[in-house]
């Protein structure tokens, strides 16, 4: 495992005044304005606690400052949870009324027995009630065969970290965690090889921005135990960084705790005569972990994948974007100017006239800038030439940005929303921008950081060549800043009971068929009226069908006759009688080739279909139906009218013979006057040879 080295020359440290020169003090944690720590100060032994052969016993102590900020004398933290063996380290919940602590598992009256048996370390919890700690409970995973120690409760109190030499680890002691699930701690999870090694990892601590500090004696360190920091990411954990001197040293350095942002805190070290607690503060804020900066993407590819059958020989897809751009095709790509709210309408237009045929879909497109710190700067620069770095395009919707900090090429730290820096050597420079964010909802603090590569060249000639060859890496683009909602999507509503109408006019007032607005509609078309309660308009149409393309011939004829802007509209059948009639036709079909044989006699399929019509009409005694028959243009118009009248009459006669009153039926042969497909091919002619049952209102 390789480990990155953290930034240097950013910390100042000082031994705390409550650390003695005779005893060991270590494992500090924050508690109610003071510090809780472990110490063997009640013993006269000066033996290093980490020497397993002669380990001194340690207990839990508390120290707090007085009103002037000076540290008082340390006292035993709690007699209720103090034992004669080892107590601590500890961790607390946010309210400070629950403690998790480590101690030897065999204590009290069983202590004598422990001298001859295993006495491993385990984790326990206690609650503060009436200023006393009680209700001590054992951690459910304590075990006589291995140690569980140095517990750390996450800031949200939903995860408990600890160190253990469980036999299923990677060797030595590993870091584990348990999640709080359904009222108890779940199974231990090893933090994995990104953090654990075949050496010893211990003393975990997580601050409020999610940075995990721990100690390890792995060989890549400076000597003894060293303090490392990592943070969770989408792939598990960032590669741990070893904190540099003066925090780490050639001695044992361990058990670090920090404030919310990692700017101040405490750690333990045996660099003196004994183990002591040191305070630290960061003079500069390092950028430990960062993600590649993503480029805000304002371009999108859209594909219409609806269920409506579209004849693209006659109709074209037209995309109308709210920024004024139109594009054509079933699949289009479009780039918007920037973040904002946009719409895209999908329209089917007549290829020849370019007039609207059917409004198919409408998309609401919301584009936001990616939520990330953002470095705006030149990608190229010259040696010793200042480059401007601007963070003002950083964007977080639910957070307030309260601080900016920069790291230039892992060495130089700067602050401010805008900064300038000149690199003194050529090469690829890694520029990092970190932000401290405050949640608008709960005030919690968060750290976010990105990095960007800047290329520094020796002279203008090299720079021009590099710029001419520069390609933005594809990996830095993202589409997570798009949100697409269908505000109108006919295809989403599409089902066998969908109904298309060829609409010719709409009006807030009721109109008569003799109104001049209808003058250019060929007389062969009957004008039908429906009232649209949703918008309070009267709508007038000349044809309706469950097949959208069946309306195209009539649409084309209306355009040719000079009638302006006929349009196909869409609705869902709600009338129960029309719904049942539609289901019958969907089941048996509407092509009379399936209803009649060569001698124009009804087939079995035709009889079954008509029996369903009889049943429908018997169920609705007031129902009146027009039986309309159509055909192709392969014969003369006169012969076609004769044939379709004959077939319509045969159907009507069967219905009458089955008990339907002839006064409830109208028989009509239309010949080839109303095709729904082109007659050039047999597939189209077959569709034109059809039977229609229309309810007479």
Automatic annotation (TrEMBL):
Does Membrane appear among the keywords? Answer: yes
OmpA-like domain location is 588-697
Record's InterPro entries? 6-blade_b-propeller_TolB-like, Bact_OuterMem_StrucFunc, OmpA-like, OmpA-like_sf, PKD_dom, PKD_dom_sf, WD40
Task: Show the GO cellular component annotation of the record.
Answer: membrane
* Pfam families to which the protein is assigned, alphabetical: OmpA, PD40, PKD_4
User: Which interval of the chain is the signal sequence?
Assistant: none
- The PKD domain covers 316-350
Q: Which UniProt keywords apply?
A: Membrane
Its protein name is Outer membrane protein ArfA
**Species this protein is from:** Saccharicrinis fermentans DSM 9555 = JCM 21142
List the top taxonomic levels of the source. Answer: Bacteria, Pseudomonadati, Bacteroidota, Bacteroidia, Marinilabiliales
